[in-house]
Design goal:
The protein is α/β, with parallel strands linked by helices. It is built from nine helices and nine strands.
């Protein structure tokens, strides 16, 4: 504070000049209170946690955007709403690609595919011809994202309840591995040679353990296969004494496809 006191004691000093000197931090260039770069990074972090997907196999958040233009459009509109100046597009691109490795865009070819509904909304938003049309599409997409998030929270609550009360609740999730990864032999590139289409299906009983089922090409997929896998899992849990016994409740989590959700499995 001594340098500001010294400045104030000069004969021609005014309060405005002292405040300007303080905001400059004693140097020639002004130092903003909240630099735009840090503001963009902070906004992106909050935005990603709201609409992004946390990857289960790495410390990463994937945004439901195939291109960065969609992310920048959200940022630009938010800054305009606040009447604040935004960073340039090229500058935000560089920050996003070089300094924020734990947040990335969805890729067309990756382990986790992009939601087709999210991609469709994003493409329509970028091609919208008016601001009102953009806002309407953004609201519809936000409703879709919130519904997704509510479903996940619903599943997580079942999982936590099963771990906390194993005598009363059991939570099971079943999913199959990408069949192109389990073909034998596995070629480095696509070929016309015949391969054996083995299939791998994983079952996780939260708080109890995991099961892996491998089927050969003679076993057809479909409702019968998924029902048999669930039956074998329950039989093994019964033999081990792991089934809930006090007013038992079973929560079953499956992908939304015809093989998993059908009258055969529901009937079982």
């Amino acid at each position: 504070m001594s340098k500001y006191v010294k400045k104030l004691n000069t004969p021609d000093a005014s309060l405005a000049s002292v405040m300007d000197y303080a905001s400059n931090d004693g140097h020639g260039s002004k130092k903003s209170v909240a630099p735009k770069k840090e503001q963009f990074v902070a906004w992106l972090q909050v935005f990603s946690e709201r609409v992004g997907d946390f990857m289960p196999d790495e410390e990463c958040i994937v945004l439901p955007y195939p291109k960065f233009e969609g992310v920048y459009l959200e940022y630009k509109q938010e800054m305009d709403r606040r009447n604040e100046e935004s960073c340039h597009y090229s500058y935000c691109c560089r920050i996003f690609s070089e300094e924020i490795p734990h947040i990335r865009l969805v890729r067309s070819k990756c382990t986790f595919v992009c939601c087709k509904i999210c991609t469709s909304y994003q493409n329509r938003i970028l091609k919208a011809k008016s601001h009102s049309e953009q806002e309407l599409l953004k609201q519809l997409r936000l409703q879709h994202v919130e519904k997704q998030r509510e479903e996940r929270i619903h599943y997580y609550s079942h999982r936590e309840a099963a771990i906390a009360s194993p005598d009363h609740i059991m939570s099971i999730i079943m999913d199959g591995m990408d069949q192109s990864k389990t073909s034998v032999p596995l070629y480095a590139r696509r070929t016309s040679d015949r391969v054996l289409g083995f299939r791998l299906v994983g079952v996780k009983v939260h708080g109890v353990g995991e099961y892996v089922f491998l089927t050969d090409p003679n076993v057809k997929g479909g409702a019968n296969l998924m029902t048999e896998i669930l039956r074998l899992t329950l039989l093994d849990l019964e033999e081990r004494g792991k089934l809930p016994t006090v007013n038992p409740t079973l929560y079953l989590q499956l992908d939304n496809c015809s093989e998993n959700k059908n009258k055969v499995l529901f009937g079982f």
